[in-house]
Write a structure and sequence with these properties.
CATH class: Alpha Beta
Structural class: alpha/beta
Oligomer: single chain
Radius of gyration: 21 Å
Length: 438
């Protein structure tokens, strides 16, 4: 265990929102009013291992980079070893565990982009995860017994509300002397950006980044990257983009409401001082930055990881440490005294809780030597780079992958995607620096 002001094994609540825009935490009024000041904010230098849903969630689960957990795309959940997650590790360490909401697409369903499998997941005691291809209103949930429950199109079936109640049900079931881990992955704000009916007209803020609407070449990028930028066409297309962003932020309002309920619940139960709360996203979502309006691109608007952590007895505030999704699992396991079945690629950032100057990754969120800051790679002092290189290959059909080498070319044709992916899988990665940055 680490030297934190906790009397015994801490419990964990991990909330993983889906494709959250960079201004998500600006649109959580309930949490902002009552709780967010207590959270440490790592969003400034947070980075996802790959800006896609499944690869990002699998990295957070496992502490492994995408080429090691092998969930390369959004239907590759069957590749991921779910015996190697922080949930399973905590279960073996005596924790009572819960998994609620979105799981790994394609796992157990023949790669058809379904979100769950009709059986108990490894290490999960209380299970309420999506089955099939869910929406906000019409979906099935599978429990730990493998039984399916269908939720229809009524307002009472709004997915975030149902999941929030599942979280409260789990918290109500925990013995007072048992450490627990609740993992909740609401689909909000992803999947059509569908707000609850009560939020359809809510006022939310919509933040446009500095590169909003610009062609990549106008921001210092190579001209060929303009071919991968969206052609907005007319004012109606721009208006739709802003509407989508607005509705995404409205969808987050229901998450905010249930988070407040969850925080108040653990406070009322007397467990607020031994529960660590982690708010993160699997990846961000580009809403017009460099004319991109989706995920899966290496610009900061898509590859950022929103991350806030509440640790009892530790003051909130901004931290400038470079933190990745692959660092979440080793941090949780270090604090819990648990161990993963496979050595992590990530590093525990627990020391940064109590010290803004504690070393973690001695690097910063900045550009490669040949790229402007929009690419948001993590460059280390020794010259290595993590999380750079997902090919902007929409125009040519390349699939690409995040690598430790600069794969984005300034000029000319892109490399053959199949050959590149094979080379990445065979590549021997150097050891990451230890948690002191060495």
């Amino acid at each position: 265990m680490v030297d934190l002001p906790l009397g015994y094994q801490p419990s964990f609540i991990v909330v993983n929102t889906d494709d959250a825009p960079l201004d998500q935490y600006d649109n959580m009024p309930g949490m902002e009013a009552a709780w967010l000041a207590d959270f440490i904010d790592y969003t400034l230098n947070g980075s996802t291992n790959m800006p896609l849903c499944l690869p990002g969630r699998a990295a957070g689960f496992s502490g492994l980079r995408v080429e090691h957990h092998r969930g390369f795309g959004n239907s590759d959940g069957s590749n991921v070893d779910l015996d190697n997650t922080f949930i399973e590790a905590l279960h073996r360490a005596g924790y009572l565990t819960a998994a609620v909401g979105k799981w790994l697409n394609g796992f157990g369903e023949g790669g058809d982009a379904g979100f769950g499998t009709q059986e108990r997941q490894p290490g999960v005691d209380f299970q309420r995860i999506y089955w099939g291809a869910p929406t906000y209103y019409d979906y099935d949930v599978v429990d730990e017994n493998g039984d399916l429950t269908h939720y229809g199109s009524a307002e009472a079936d709004y997915a975030t509300d149902v999941q929030g109640q599942h979280c409260i049900d789990f918290l109500n079931s925990i013995p007072s002397n048992r450490p627990f881990c609740l993992y909740w992955a609401p689909r909000a704000p992803h999947a059509g950006f569908t707000p609850a009916n009560r939020h359809l007209s809510s006022n939310v803020s919509v933040t446009k980044g500095a590169s909003w609407g610009l062609l990549p070449s106008k921001y210092g990028n190579a001209a060929w990257l303009d071919d991968a930028a969206d052609d907005w066409g007319d004012a109606d297309a721009v208006a739709q983009l802003i509407t989508d962003h607005t509705n995404g932020n409205r969808a987050v309002l229901s998450v905010d409401e249930w988070l407040v309920d969850i925080m108040e619940h653990i406070q009322a139960s007397g467990r607020i001082n031994d529960t660590i709360v982690i708010l993160k996203t699997d990846n961000a979502h580009a809403f017009g930055e460099l004319r991109q309006s989706d995920k899966g691109i290496p610009h900061k608007a898509a590859s950022s990881m929103l991350l806030m952590v509440r640790v009892p007895g530790i003051s909130g505030g901004t931290r400038r440490h470079a933190v990745s999704d692959i660092d979440v699992a080793p941090t949780i396991c270090r604090l819990a005294g648990a161990s993963m079945r496979r050595a992590s690629d990530g590093m525990s950032f627990h020391k940064t809780f109590s010290s803004a100057t504690a070393p973690h990754r001695r690097c910063a969120l900045n550009a490669s030597p040949s790229k402007p800051p929009t690419f948001g790679a993590l460059w280390y002092e020794d010259g290595r780079v993590y999380y750079e290189g997902w090919e902007l290959g929409q125009a040519s059909g390349a699939i690409g992958c995040w690598t430790e080498a600069d794969q984005i070319r300034d000029q000319g044709p892109q490399p053959d995607a199949a050959a590149e992916l094979a080379a990445l899988q065979a590549y021997s990665y150097p050891a990451a620096p230890d948690e002191d940055g060495h």
